[in-house]
């Protein structure tokens, strides 16, 4: 009997231990799968956050969302993003998923061109009063939203950047003008941030030498030649001080950030030869200026910047995030190539922020819609000139309303439905079938009647796919969603093969359902395009200008031109669609450059052409 009990005990213990090992293995597998999924997480520009409706321009009954002038900091291993006139800020643990925090005390009209600084993980300092003067706030609990103001410390300050060096010396950089240079003054952080008496003018734009600093869309304006210098931001790296600045204007596709490098926070500063360091003039969403560079906990740098939308207003903007690096020569640059396509998230071990290979499937797809109040094409070039073209109503052979603006890769075109209810829909027949991985829905604000931060807004809809346009399957169901997603980015768990995509509206913010672009990403089923031939580069008499031409590649949607100051420093790019020529006004006059080009389509990206040198 004792022997039997002993044997039964052994069996029981073995069974328990085996079950424990199985549970441990399952837990380990689950954890590993979760980590892999996290590493494969992606994001897209513009960032998918719940942008705030602006109080600015409300006197003109202009209702639109905007996000601009980001100040992003790391504090105790997590991240906080402050954005112009947002009546609060966003928090993230991974630089991809952001949640809004409404602070207990804040500036009445929301912060304007904010600055924030994490001082040794003890306090976060913040400034950005829309009136140009006021307190610097501070907190040791930004997640809780409790802030304390200092007494008033500055007047006539816009686009400020607060920087506290390792030795505790404190500097305030500022400037927003097409006449005046950036300036800096020293403050005493231990005495209400009072000025110490040290004040200095630093540098100004030099449009005659730097083509990318010239005012206007594509760096051209018929009358105004002086660009705006603004958005100072300081990054210290390997003992050098990288003072970043934005030019030539926030409403333009060529809005960019450049850099001057100094050995001290007060300079003297020297123009960086590979400028601009953050530049995205082509593609669907343009601009990469007035930003800030933040260091991730793993050492990776990221540049958060402002992207131009400028449809309802020239101040209508969105946010972007690009991986940023310092090369062996100490030059700072960002990777903005295919910058509005899906990109690997910040947790990817080797390719964080790089384009993940998913291509655009929906370009020039045949879009039909349920109704059409209007279809509009806008162009905003400066304070006064806004061209508005209402497109004529078109129908296909089946009597369905056509909407070409939904697949044209132009952020300033949009379609407005007759209503905002569950009877509104849009369908895209893609040119060819493909494997769909993700969607980006760029909703448009049309007379929304909202003028400030408003809680409880939600975008509710479903998305279906089909191979034949007859048999449909639901792949996204947000019909009861509580999320506010004006630039919704949705990744499918598994790729779905389809030729048709249909969006079914339930309800979105505003009086009318309206959309600028419905973008579908994945991979086509055919071969990548062949390499580009006949690539010609001609620097014009004005050395800031350059013209390109090349042989059209069969099946290509467009082309990506890359250039830089050396063969191994091709840091800049300009993505163009549906053309085999391009004219650019963005070069530095006295700098020789190297150029290459590649073709792209829904099936992938071609090999690069041989590198061309232009004196």
Automatic annotation (TrEMBL):
Domain F5/8 type C: 369-523
Domain of life: Bacteria
Record key words, sorted: Glycosidase, Hydrolase
Classification via Pfam families: F5_F8_type_C (PF00754), Glyco_hydro_43 (PF04616)
TM ranges: none
Similarity comment: family membership: Belongs to the glycosyl hydrolase 43 family.
PANTHER family linked: BETA-XYLOSIDASE, BETA-XYLOSIDASE-RELATED
Protein name: 1,4-beta-xylanase
Source organism (scientific name): Polaribacter sejongensis
């Amino acid at each position: 009997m004792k022997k039997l009990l002993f044997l039964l005990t052994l069996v029981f213990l073995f069974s328990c231990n085996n079950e424990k090992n199985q549970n441990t293995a399952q837990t380990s597998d689950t954890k590993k799968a979760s980590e892999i999924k996290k590493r494969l997480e992606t994001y897209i520009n513009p960032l998918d956050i719940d942008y705030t409706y602006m109080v600015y321009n409300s006197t003109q009954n202009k209702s639109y969302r905007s996000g601009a002038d980001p100040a992003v900091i790391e504090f105790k291993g997590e991240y906080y993003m402050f954005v112009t006139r947002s009546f609060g800020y966003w928090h993230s643990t991974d630089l991809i998923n952001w949640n809004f925090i409404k602070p207990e005390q804040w500036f009445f009209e929301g912060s304007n061109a904010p600055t924030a600084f994490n001082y040794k993980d003890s306090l976060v300092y913040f400034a950005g009063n829309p009136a140009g003067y006021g307190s610097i706030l501070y907190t040791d609990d930004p997640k809780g939203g409790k802030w304390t103001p200092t007494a008033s410390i500055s007047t006539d300050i816009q686009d400020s950047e607060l920087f506290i060096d390792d030795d505790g010396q404190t500097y305030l950089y500022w400037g927003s003008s097409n006449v005046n240079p950036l300036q800096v003054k020293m403050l005493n952080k231990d005495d209400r941030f009072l000025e110490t008496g040290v004040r200095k003018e630093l540098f100004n734009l030099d449009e005659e030498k730097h083509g990318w600093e010239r005012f206007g869309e594509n760096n051209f304006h018929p009358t105004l030649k002086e660009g705006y210098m603004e958005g100072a931001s300081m990054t210290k790296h390997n003992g050098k001080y990288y003072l970043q600045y934005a030019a030539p204007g926030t409403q333009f596709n060529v809005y960019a950030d450049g850099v001057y490098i100094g050995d001290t926070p007060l300079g003297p500063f020297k123009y960086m030869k590979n400028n601009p360091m953050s530049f995205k003039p082509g593609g669907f969403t343009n601009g990469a200026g007035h930003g800030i560079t933040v260091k991730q906990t793993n050492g990776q740098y990221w540049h958060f910047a402002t992207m131009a939308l400028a449809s309802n207003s020239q101040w209508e903007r969105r946010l972007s995030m690009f991986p940023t690096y310092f090369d062996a020569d100490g030059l700072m640059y960002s990777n903005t190539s295919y910058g509005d396509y899906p990109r690997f998230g910040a947790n990817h071990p080797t390719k964080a922020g790089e384009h993940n290979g998913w291509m655009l499937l929906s370009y020039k797809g045949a879009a039909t819609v349920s109704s059409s109040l209007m279809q509009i094409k806008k162009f905003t070039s400066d304070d006064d000139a806004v061209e508005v073209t209402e497109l004529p109503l078109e129908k296909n052979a089946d009597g369905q309303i056509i909407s070409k603006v939904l697949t044209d890769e132009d952020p300033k075109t949009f379609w407005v439905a007759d209503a905002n209810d569950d009877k509104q829909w849009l369908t895209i027949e893609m040119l060819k079938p493909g494997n769909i991985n993700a969607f980006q829905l760029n909703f448009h604000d049309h007379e929304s009647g909202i003028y400030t931060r408003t809680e409880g807004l939600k975008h509710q809809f479903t998305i279906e796919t089909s191979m034949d346009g007859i048999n449909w399957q639901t792949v996204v169901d947000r019909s009861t969603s509580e999320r506010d997603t004006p630039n919704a980015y949705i990744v499918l768990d598994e790729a779905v093969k389809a030729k048709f995509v249909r969006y079914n509206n339930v309800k979105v913010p505003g009086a009318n359902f309206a959309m600028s672009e419905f973008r579908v990403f994945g991979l086509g089923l055919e071969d990548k395009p062949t390499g580009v031939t006949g690539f010609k580069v001609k620097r014009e008499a004005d050395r800031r200008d350059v013209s390109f031409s090349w042989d059209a590649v069969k099946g290509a949607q467009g082309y990506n031109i890359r250039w830089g100051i050396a063969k191994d420093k091709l840091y800049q790019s300009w993505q163009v669609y549906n053309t085999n020529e391009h004219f650019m006004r963005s070069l530095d006059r006295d700098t020789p450059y190297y150029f290459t080009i590649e073709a792209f389509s829904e099936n992938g990206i071609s090999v690069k052409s041989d590198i061309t040198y232009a004196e």
